[in-house]
Amino acid sequence: MLSKTEGIVLHSIKQGERGRIVKIYTRTKGLIPFIVRSTQSKRKGDSSGLLMPLRVLDLEVDIREGRSLQTIRYMSAAENQFALYNSPLRSSIALFIAEAFVKSIEEEDNSESLYQTLLKWTRKLEKADALAEIPIRFLLELSEPLGFQPHAETQGPYFDLREGVFQDHPPHHPDFLDGEISSSLRAYLGTEIVATHAISKELRRRLLEGLVMYYRIHIPQFKGLSSFEVLREVYSL
What we know:
Elements: E1 2-15, E2 19-26, E3 30-37, E4 56-62, E5 70-77, H1 88-102, H2 112-127, H3 134-146, E6 158-160, E7 165-167, E8 176-177, H4 179-189, H5 201-218, H6 226-234
Parallel strand pairs: 3-5
Antiparallel strand pairs: 1-2, 1-4, 2-3, 4-5, 6-7, 6-8
Helix pairs in contact: 1-2, 1-3, 1-6, 2-3, 3-5, 4-5
């Protein structure tokens, strides 16, 4: 059935000589895998530039029940994302956000809240001047619609990654953030007076590593992020 929707590219992998399998989170139908055939047609142009991570697209799609890969009849850029794809820093963060998102959801998930969260941070990545905090703030905001956001109202110097709470003493298991990182987390949650821009690069890196672990604990299919290593090399967290 043909329909029009908006979608955000999350992942693309080569299939055969002239095809790609592309995962797109659509506004109306959630996460859908598509098969996209490349073309040499001058009229249609090269579609590869439209399949970069976090590219926002206007789509005309053919969705048929029982088919593992759906088809795109037409696609075009929905927004100007010049800054995102002309900056190694922004592109590396885009890859991180896309990978974290696709590993956090199931194909049947169809949520306007999830779509708006992804769209919001895609736009922020395009326009923001300060990029250092975006990966951390994205993971924290995404955890809310996913249902395991940290309980900022709890008290204590240690953050329990399993329970999502702050507490007075280290828990009797290894999955927790120490006092220094927990204090940084509080700053990002808005419950500390310390400004987040004053947090050192080293603490920011350790906090991001802690949040990746937090996601691994709460999402069964979340198995690390290969883009995190790239992000650390290109962009000093």
